[in-house]
Amino acid sequence: MTSKDCGHDDDEKSGLLRGILGGIVFLIFIVLFVVFLIWLILRPTKPRFILQDATIYSFNVTQPNMLSSTFQITLSTRNPNQRIGVYYDRVDVYASYHNQQITLPTRLPPTYQGHKDIIVWSPFLYGQSVPVAPFLGLSLQQDQNAGLVLMNIKIDGRVKWKVGTWISGKYHLNVNCPAYITFGNKGGNGNGNGNGNGNLNSGVNFGAAIKYQLASSCEVDV
Q: What is the pTM of this model?
């Protein structure tokens, strides 16, 4: 084979390689364009959550560093999407204080949320004699003296998206709802359903529940 033939073969190989690379780049462009077109048509948006109210039945600190609490909360979620439905699967709700979980997780029922639909849940949250860090008792007493306690209602679960007959895989759902609870004489935002005074030393007992209208927007991460 002459050197001229070798050069011709090299040119053919280079041309073939450029053709393959060009085809791969074109295919990637088509895929990205289709993904962008689907996103442009569907405009996917995360569900929106609101903590509407919280009813406190008990909220007591006992020694050594044990916290007992019982709440009922009302959560609403709205699906803002016009073409995407949402499946809620294995969704747990619990309360935390200073980033420490103070109630057991309550499992919400599996639910499908259609386009623009609103779902309302009213779960009970229980935490009996939950061990807490020693500093939390002091922090809770200081918050009581200030007349305001910040808790967080958190949601942890899985969601799936539905477009037409297609259903996606599972995505992690993480929701954080701040709940500002007022106590004592400074607690003007609570609507008492009984004769409880909201004092953290004596606690709020069953039959003396205090309901707080919150309407607190939640942070949602999917």
A: 0.73
